[in-house]
Write a structure and sequence with these properties.
Layout lengths: L2 H10 L3 H28 L4 H12 L7
């Protein structure tokens, strides 16, 4: 049995309270992973082209204030 299968089996047996706590933990964990990846992408310059494109669109007046 893989680790993922073990986690799935455990989650199926959670009480409603444990499931709520797991959801909250996982949302926090997932957000942290996302933030780390975004920061790495920024440091590596992977978003530079997109940022420049957005700035060019703004300078050309093709953006709107929300």
């Amino acid at each position: 049995m893989s680790t993922l299968q073990e986690v799935e089996t455990a989650v199926r047996h959670f009480t409603a309270e444990d499931l709520a706590r797991f959801r909250a933990w996982f949302l926090d964990y997932d957000a942290e992973v996302w933030d780390r990846q975004l920061e790495e992408d920024i440091r590596a310059g992977r978003l530079d082209a997109l940022a420049e494109e957005a700035l060019q669109e703004h300078r050309a007046g093709r953006t709107a204030d929300l």
